[in-house]
């Protein structure tokens, strides 16, 4: 069995992981284990040596978001080959790929390949639309190389990053922006159900600041664009941050 396991609030990590998993699956069909929501119950959590798993998660503050780590710890491999991917918003992935490399090995998986992929940044207007068709084509070509490496019995020895990881033991946490809700909200409840941390109250408006990780999933999925971050402090930050990160970076693949 081939599976993509991902934490992906704004769907960019999902796209890369699923594209690679589909290209690796003998019949082009891979299982998707979406563990973005805190209450996700994955269909399968144990994998054997004949399986192949592709992990996907975003970079938060140069690290793996600690909640993504916790979710991935629900899975176990038994010498299961895997591909690890982190998706980042065009700044850098720092130690996130290395952290995922170390984590999956502790969980019984053996990395064959790794990728640091560029996705649209959560904030501002940075690499909007990525991964695009050209990124997904690169992911496909990489998957073919992974297949060859696996057949030849080659495994990945290391990936870029530092130990100890940047920012200490705690790992990536969320940001400090807390979305607002305007009067166009129809109380459809979608954001309440889809918030990865269950941070939005039943009134569809009140956000628990301790639980919210500023992933902006609620803003992206709201059908009425009622969830927003239309406050001057954020808008000013977004504009200068977008200008600073305007040069596109390339996806990096490791075998
Ligand atoms: C709290 C937070 C911290 C982030 N830190 C980084 C970072 O250190 N480097 C970077 O390039 N992008 C950073 N990003 C951007 C995300 O990594 C990027 O948008 C990614 O594609 C989101 O993945 P998703 O669509 O799977 O949720 C950060 C985003 C958030 C919400
Ligand atoms: S998704 Fe949008 S419209 Fe629906 S409850 Fe949330 S804020 Fe309101
Ligand atoms: S409330 Fe916070 S954690 Fe929940 S979806 Fe919105 S930004 Fe993400």
Give the overall average pLDDT: 96
* Shape by Cα distribution: globular
Q: What Rg do the Cα atoms give? A: 18 Å
Q: Low-confidence parts, pLDDT < 50 over ≥5 residues?
A: none
| Tally of individual domains | 2
What is the CATH C-level name of the largest domain? Answer: Alpha Beta
Structural class, by secondary structure, is alpha/beta
* Total number of beta strands: 11
Q: What is the strand content?
A: 15-25%
Oligomer: single chain
Helical fraction: 25-40%
CATH architecture assignment of the largest domain: 3-Layer(aba) Sandwich
Number of helices: 7
CATH superfamily of the largest domain: Flavodoxin domain
Distinct small molecules? flavin mononucleotide, iron/sulfur cluster
Alpha-carbon distance between the two ends: 21 Å
What's the main sheet like? 7 strands, mixed
- Give me the CATH fold name of the largest domain: Rossmann fold
Helix and strand sequence: EHEEEEHEEHEHEHHEHE
């Amino acid at each position: 069995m081939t599976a993509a396991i991902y934490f992906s609030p704004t769907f960019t990590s999902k796209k890369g992981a699923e594209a690679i998993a589909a290209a690796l699956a003998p019949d082009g069909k891979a299982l998707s284990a979406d563990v973005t929501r805190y209450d996700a119950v994955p269909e399968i959590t144990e994998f054997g040596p004949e399986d192949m798993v592709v992990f996907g998660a975003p970079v938060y503050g140069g690290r793996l978001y600690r909640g993504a780590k916790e979710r991935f710890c629900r899975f176990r491999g038994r010498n299961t080959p895997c591909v690890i991917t982190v998706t980042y918003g065009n700044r850098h992935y720092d130690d996130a790929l290395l952290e995922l490399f170390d984590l999956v090995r502790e969980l019984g998986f053996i990395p064959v390949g790794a990728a640091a992929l560029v996705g649209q940044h959560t904030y501002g207007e940075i690499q909007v639309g990525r991964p695009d068709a050209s990124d997904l084509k690169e992911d496909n070509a990489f998957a073919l190389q992974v297949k060859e490496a696996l057949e030849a019995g080659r495994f990945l020895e290391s990936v870029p990053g530092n130990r100890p990881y940047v920012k200490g033991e705690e790992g990536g946490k969320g940001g400090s922006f807390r979305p607002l809700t305007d009067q166009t909200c129809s109380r459809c409840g979608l954001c309440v159900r889809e918030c990865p941390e269950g941070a939005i109250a039943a009134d569809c408006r009140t956000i628990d600041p301790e639980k919210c990780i500023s992933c902006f999933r609620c803003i992206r999925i709201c059908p009425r664009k009622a969830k927003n971050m239309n406050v001057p402090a954020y808008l000013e930050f977004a504009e200068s941050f977008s200008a600073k990160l305007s040069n596109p970076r390339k996806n990096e693949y490791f075998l």
